[in-house]
Specification:
There is one protein chain. With 421 residues, the protein is mostly beta strands. Helices cover 9% and strands 37% of the residues. A hairpin with a 2-residue loop joins strand 6 and strand 7. Helix 1 runs antiparallel to helix 2. The protein binds calcium ion (2 copies).
């Protein structure tokens, strides 16, 4: 059974923080360092441990600045002893998104965007990440919950010395957060991060504001992809029980579908295709009509729903004519793992309900953003393979059976790819 649980995740809850720790960050430019201004970390929005550093990147807003260096030296502490224990998060509204980075000595190096705010903080790993997500869901999904409940929820979830199953949250708080599996293990990590429990219950940032839990949970479906359509299939003209038509009805002309293994049209919310793993991998390939080039911006969107009790994931890729892939998204029943250039990103959700996925792709920069149900989950991620040339197809496949053939089922609808400029 393949599971992917090691990468840091962007879904962070930022609780009260101590004062800004002074630090400079510079680029490795030959002439002069790129200016990165330390700023006050957002009040009430800081990491579980007691320190983080916030920066605003100078320059013309929106400009990508490569290889900017951020020192971790002021943050090295008893809790986090090495630079590898830190991550870079980009502020996006109330959310914090993990940014791809490399490590060089005690510095983290990333491509960043001028005008935006970045926070260097300990990376979220393991139970902590899952527990913070549970806390987020409980506090954000139920805004009418009395404010006094939040410290109680916080300490019960984060500060217990023993791990417990998410299913017991129903008894404790009357509900299980949306998207959480009852069998997920929460809490009980060792050591408990310093000040974490205290941060939950004390006023934030020296103000009288109560601590807030700030993390955006999924909301609206991702918007449609606009622009010149390269591929579009909603399967409404297909026959239930058969393979989908090799030429999807409607515009654009020239798009095509290729399948192998067990891929059939089903009646879901509307007509859709279902990939079922059998002795052969199930493969759905959407091949683009004309109009793609090796420059410009593209939009990729689909709606997908995992089978219950997936024993193997489905793998989604966006591919070029030269077979390079911009990313690999491995979707399971309760998590998805995005692999791009040097980065693995784990997204915890219940994927057994229909979820909309959208990718905004900048082929000039070989970078992309990803949205799930309308919420941005990663920003400015580098391509998996930078040799990527002309966009060619989008592909979904279950793995090949080797010794045993575990079940994998994925229902796919509204697959659409456009060139947006
Ligand atoms: Ca067509
Ligand atoms: Ca449909």
């Amino acid at each position: 059974m393949i599971k992917h649980k090691t990468a840091a995740i962007s879904l962070a809850i930022f609780v009260a923080i101590t004062a800004l720790t002074g630090c400079t960050a510079m680029s490795k430019g030959k002439t002069r360092p790129h200016r990165v201004e330390p700023i006050d970390a957002p009040k009430n929005l800081v990491f579980s441990r007691d320190r983080a550093i916030a920066y605003r990147v100078a320059g013309k807003a929106g400009t990508v600045i490569r290889d900017v260096e951020f020192s971790t030296r002021p943050l090295i502490s008893r809790d986090v002893k090495a630079p590898a224990g830190f991550a870079i998060y980009e502020q996006s509204g109330e959310n914090y998104i993990a940014v791809a980075h490399q490590q060089r000595g005690d510095r983290l190096i990333a491509d960043v965007i001028a005008g935006r705010t970045y926070i260097i903080a300990p990376a979220l790993t393991g139970h902590l990440r899952v527990s913070l997500l549970a806390l987020c869901r409980l506090t954000i999904e139920e805004p009418r919950r009395p404010a006094a409940d939040i410290p109680r929820i916080c300490t019960q979830i984060l500060c217990g010395s023993q791990p417990f199953l998410a299913g017991s949250l129903v008894d404790r708080f009357g509900s299980l957060p949306e998207g959480m599996s009852p069998s997920l293990e929460l809490g009980g990590w060792d050591p408990i991060p310093r000040d974490l429990c205290e941060a939950c219950t004390r006023p934030g940032g020296g103000s009288d504001d109560p601590p807030t839990i700030s993390l955006v949970c999924p909301a609206a479906p991702a918007p449609e992809c606009d622009g010149q359509v390269l591929f579009n299939d909603d399967f409404e003209s297909d026959s239930v029980g058969s393979a989908p038509a090799s030429s999807p009805a409607g515009p654009p002309p020239g798009d095509a579908v290729s399948t192998s293994g067990n891929v059939t049209v089903v009646n879901a919310a509307s007509r859709a295709v279902r990939l079922s793993r059998s002795s052969q991998p199930a493969v759905f390939e959407g091949i683009f009509g004309s109009g793609a080039t090796d420059t410009g911006s593209y939009c990729v969107r689909f709606v997908g729903q995992s089978g219950v009790d997936m024993r193997e994931p489905v793998i989604m890729t966006f591919n070029a004519a030269n077979s390079a892939s911009a990313w690999q998204l491995v979707i399971d029943d309760n998590e998805a793992v995005l692999t791009s250039g040097g980065v693995r990103f784990i997204l915890l959700r219940d994927f057994t309900v229909p979820r909309s996925f959208r990718f905004d792709v900048n082929l000039d920069l070989k970078r992309f953003d990803m949205f799930v149900d309308g919420t941005q989950v990663v920003s400015n991620m580098p391509f998996l393979d930078t040799s990527f040339d002309v966009p060619s197809d989008v592909r979904f496949e279950t793995g090949r059976c080797i010794l045993e053939c575990f079940t994998a089922e994925y229902t796919l609808d509204d697959v659409r790819v456009t060139k947006t400029n």
